[in-house]
Amino acid sequence: MGRYCSIAPEVMIGSNEHPVDWLTSSRVTHVADLHDWARFCAPDRVDEIRSQRVPFKDACKITNIGNDVWIGQGVFIKAGVTIGDGAIVAGRSVVVKDVPAYSIVAGTPATVKRMRFPDATVERLTRLRWWRYSIFDLFGIPFDKIDEALDRIEEKVEAGGLAEYAPERITMDRLREAFQPPIPQGIVQAAE
Prior knowledge:
The chain is an alpha/beta fold. It has helices at 37-41, 46-51, 119-128, 146-158, 172-179, 185-191, and strands spanning 6-7, 12-13, 64-65, 70-71, 76-77, 82-83, 88-89, 94-95, 103-106, 111-115.
């Protein structure tokens, strides 16, 4: 997932795919130790069964979400789909195919309704890749005027006034710590 994405509640990304043109779509044929069923159902043949596993290359496809993507509430995204930079996915859409950069998609299945910007603007956005920079270094730029914003960012980049943003990696432990509610003062005193 890229930077500066907006993900609404109830978005789901599909999990494992199953073979639809095999004798069975069950994962037991390509995940031989699935829930250890072989040991339970055929304890004398565990090694034989595991050795006959047939790989299913599409089982766990990686889903890619670009930078500055907005995904609306309740969207379902099929595993393995790529959502391009700057794309918008309307709420309750079902995304089963790749979404082009800077497109707006909606529906079941999701289809392109329109592009966010004219081709020339999309080319500038793609070339500039503005999300490489800290949003805080871009304040003062008119975000609501796309051409002027791009002009100003391009000027800053050419003048060497913007450094690429390289944040430190944040762990789940640090997030938990940062978002724990503060303990009210009276409780702290009572505990001491």
